[in-house]
Backbone:
């Protein structure tokens, strides 16, 4: 009578996508998302209205654009990190509270599919939010770059600059405008938030409270930002004094797994500063992200598969 | 294929961790029972006796401390065992932002249903649980009885051979619970195995052919309902329009026989449930339509 196969695949992409879709809509209903999105959009929008008419001789054109980009990218970064932590911390307890976790897992749904679906839904949400902000950001930046070019080059011509000087000023300003390096920078913010989300997911599989998950994930994020330097220092010192014993190396290896090293991701700052961010470096970071996410997801799966719900 | 039991629970023990000083809490204590395909099995017992825990262990939602559970021969700790089972948890609650129809579609998709098959099945189920008119409303606005019915529809979405219902009629008015009872009869007539627990004993008596009584985690009685509740040495005669003279004759006849004894005579009474149903139905039909 039953037309269902008697075997359930351990992992099914279509089932994961269904769960991701439901997580996405579930999260879209959370006020925190809109609150943050609107907040960031206002922050970007304010810059749009405030035109840089005050192009004084003391600040160069590119400085002007930098001081415009820096806070906007900062806002986007905070948006991504906060959503990654908060949304992930909320999502499983919410299902547990609603008892949808019972009804979902009582269906032939492997727990891995469930976890991946949740993670994917959260990432889709962050991606959608970042996309909206990135579009607005680029429009604003483009507009300002054009205005600035007009003002600056007009002024330079009036002041009788040489053709080379004008050209170099033009290049200077363009480098601070919308560029592929900058887009890769925004994508890098997404990668970072993906790592943080999988850390938060792992913590939420064994934590009993949302607050605990949020605090621990935030801690991991900050430690990942700064601790790596300290770790390098100790390893270097240990090597220098000759007692580079197994213990220190293992400890440092353990630390680097527990706390993902976010330093390479700081290349976003360079991209904001108008420096080149080569695609090769981006793909390297993509690989690091995949590795971290893989490790944390497998760990989450181990914890979650024995979890009492 | 009917030689494999729909449900098989063997020496199931489930302990929950409690605070450090007190020992673990034994919610289910060496429970064993089987349910044959097509049976309707009712588990009854006081609050906190371990009914829901047994059901959750059977569905793989909690890990047994010891013992095994299986569904149609598949170990409950494996995902495969969930292919052929539908579950309605106690006090079900679903995504508030979804409509009734979307909810059923969501669970259908999780079971691998797609396209036209999913659509037909969804409409069928909405019809079955009498929610076709409310299918576009958000679950946030559903009443408790409606939630219970959408939960039932969700449990049936992949046409499972076994349905597990944890207090399907809790918080539902007598008419709604009557509908749910009829639904269970309907499942039974289609050969679907039902495992339910409830505090409404009359209902359990009505629908179940096997019952188990669980107390403080131990299954203290289990078997065919008939065998458990019939009083073997008594016989009941119900007469209509009998005059006092006839009754006198019967009494005399009984007195003349050795061994037989008249225990009591009187008027059979309807249950309060039946009375409530009859009265509300009458009021309904005189008000609307
Ligand atoms: N997750 C849990 N953690 C700790 N103890 C639990 C947990 N779930 C259930 N228990 C305990 O196990 C015992 C059995 O609970 P269970 O929910 O199975 O009872 P029940 O028979 O379904 O009761 P009710 O009729 O009230 O629904 C109770 O004492 C309960 O406190
Ligand atoms: Mg219960």
Residues:
């Amino acid at each position: 009578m039953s037309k269902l196969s008697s075997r359930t695949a351990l992992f099914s992409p279509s089932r994961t996508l269904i769960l991701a879709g439901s997580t996405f809509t579930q999260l879209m209903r959370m006020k925190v998302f809109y609150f943050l999105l609107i907040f960031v959009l206002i922050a970007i929008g304010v810059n749009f209205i405030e035109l840089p008419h005050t192009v004084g001789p003391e600040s160069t054109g590119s400085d002007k654009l930098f001081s415009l980009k820096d806070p906007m990218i900062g806002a986007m970064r905070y948006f991504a990190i906060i959503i990654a932590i908060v949304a992930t911390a909320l999502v499983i307890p919410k299902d547990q509270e609603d008892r949808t976790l019972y009804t979902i897992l009582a269906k032939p749904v492997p727990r891995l599919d469930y976890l991946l679906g949740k993670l994917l839904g959260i990432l889709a949400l962050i991606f959608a939010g970042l996309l909206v902000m990135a579009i607005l950001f680029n429009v604003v930046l483009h507009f300002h770059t054009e205005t600035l070019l007009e003002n600056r080059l007009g002024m330079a011509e009036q002041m009788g600059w040489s053709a080379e000087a004008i050209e170099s000023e033009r290049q200077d300003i363009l480098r601070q405008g919308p560029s592929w390096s900058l887009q890769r920078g925004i994508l890098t913010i997404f990668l970072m938030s993906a790592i943080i989300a999988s850390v938060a997911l792992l913590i939420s599989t064994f934590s009993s409270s949302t607050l605990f998950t949020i605090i621990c994930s935030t801690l991991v994020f900050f430690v990942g930002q700064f601790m790596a330097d300290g770790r390098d220092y100790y390893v270097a010192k240990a090597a220098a004094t000759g007692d580079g014993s197994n213990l220190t190396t293992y400890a440092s290896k353990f630390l680097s797994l527990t706390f993902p090293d976010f330093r390479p991701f700081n290349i976003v700052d360079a991209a904001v500063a108008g420096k080149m961010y080569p695609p090769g470096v981006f793909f390297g970071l993509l690989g690091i992200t995949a590795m971290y996410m893989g490790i944390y997801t497998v760990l989450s799966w181990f914890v979650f598969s024995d979890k009492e719900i | 294929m009917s030689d494999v039991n729909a449900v098989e629970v063997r020496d199931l023990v489930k302990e929950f961790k409690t605070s450090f000083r007190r020992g673990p809490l034994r919610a289910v204590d060496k429970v064993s029972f089987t349910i044959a395909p097509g049976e309707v099995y009712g588990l009854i017992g006081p609050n906190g006796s371990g009914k829901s825990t047994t059901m959750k262990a059977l569905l793989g939602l909690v890990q047994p401390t010891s013992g095994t559970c299986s569904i149609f021969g598949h170990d409950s700790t494996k995902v495969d065992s969930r292919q052929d089972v539908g579950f309605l948890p106690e006090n079900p609650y679903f995504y508030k932002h979804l409509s009734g129809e979307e909810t059923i579609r969501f669970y259908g998709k999780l079971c691998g249903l797609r396209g036209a098959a999913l659509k037909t099945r969804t409409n069928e189920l909405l019809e079955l649980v009498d929610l076709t008119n409310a299918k576009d409303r958000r679950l946030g606005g559903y009443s408790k009885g409606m939630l219970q019915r959408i939960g039932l529809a969700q449990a049936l979405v992949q046409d499972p051979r076994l349905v597990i219902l944890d207090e399907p009629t809790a918080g539902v008015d007598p008419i709604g619970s009557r509908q749910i009872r009829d639904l269970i009869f309907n499942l039974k007539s289609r050969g679907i195995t039902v495992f339910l627990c409830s505090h409404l004993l009359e209902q359990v008596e009505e629908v179940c052919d096997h019952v188990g009584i669980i107390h403080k985690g131990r299954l203290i009685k289990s078997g065919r309902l008939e065998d458990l509740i019939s009083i073997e040495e008594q016989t009941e005669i119900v007469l209509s329009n009998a005059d006092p003279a006839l009754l006198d004759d019967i009494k005399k006849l009984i007195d003349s026989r050795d061994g037989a004894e008249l225990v009591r005579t009187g008027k059979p009474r309807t249950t309060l449930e039946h009375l409530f149903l009859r009265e509300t139905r009458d009021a309904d039909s005189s008000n609307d339509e």
About this structure: Residues 1-5 of chain A have pLDDT under 50 and may be disordered. Residues 102 and 174 of chain A are 55 Å apart (CA to CA). Residues 10-305 of chain A form one domain.
